[in-house]
Amino acid sequence: MKMIIHIFFTLSLVSSISFASVQDFCVADPKGPQSPSGYSCKNPDQVTENDFAFSGLAKAGNTSNIIKAAVTPAFAPTFAGINGLGVSLARLDLASGGVIPLHTHPGASEVLVVIQGTICAGFISSANKVYLKTLEKGDSMVFPQGLLHFQLNSGKGPALAFVAFGSSSPGLQILSFALFANDLPSELVEATTFLSDAEVKKLKGVLGGTN
């Protein structure tokens, strides 16, 4: 009898732990609460085939900006059907000279595939070793989770790439924006980057930072 109770308890515990993994899906409900693991699930009775399709990557992004580039994400909840599935996508449009500045994705690794043009891409390891590669149409490159990386259009015309992430919400932090696009005091930026006061103020002015 004790063995039966023990088995029943164990099965109940395993069932409760793996409940999320046996669900077919968890379509994001943007009106519900969000947790580190994702958005709450939409009522299955309200889920339709449209939740599992996304057409936002078909249109080129606007590259008329300071970086001459555009990122069109397909993350949860914009693409509601990927919530909780551990995947997401984005489209990168880079005009001539366009760049996706040094940035990190704290929540996921990234794989890039070049569709058009030539892209110089690279990342920096935690040992400060640089891994740099010029990618042509059809080439791909992986960027490990959390490491600083970038993409630069090094060709003569526009470039297009698609990226995939190992999370429905990979997160994003752009290094230059973190330093110069907020109210972090200039003297602290200067002390931690060894840049001059004039250089810091110039970059803050360009990126909209204050203080």
TrEMBL record:
Oxalate binds at H105, E110. Disulfide bonds join C26-C41. InterPro entries: Cupin_1, Germin, Germin_Mn-BS, RmlC-like_jellyroll, RmlC_Cupin_sf. Its main location: secreted. SMART domains: Cupin_1. GO terms for molecular function: manganese ion binding. Residues 1-20 form the signal peptide. Residues 55-201 form the Cupin type-1 domain. It is found in: Secreted, Extracellular space, Apoplast. Keywords: Apoplast, Disulfide bond, Glycoprotein, Manganese, Metal-binding, Secreted, Signal. Mn(2+) binds at H103, H105, E110, H149. It comes from the Eukaryota. CDD domains: cupin_OxOx (cd02241). One of its GO terms (cellular component) is extracellular matrix. The keyword Glycoprotein applies. Belongs to the germin family. This is Germin-like protein. It comes from Brassica napus.
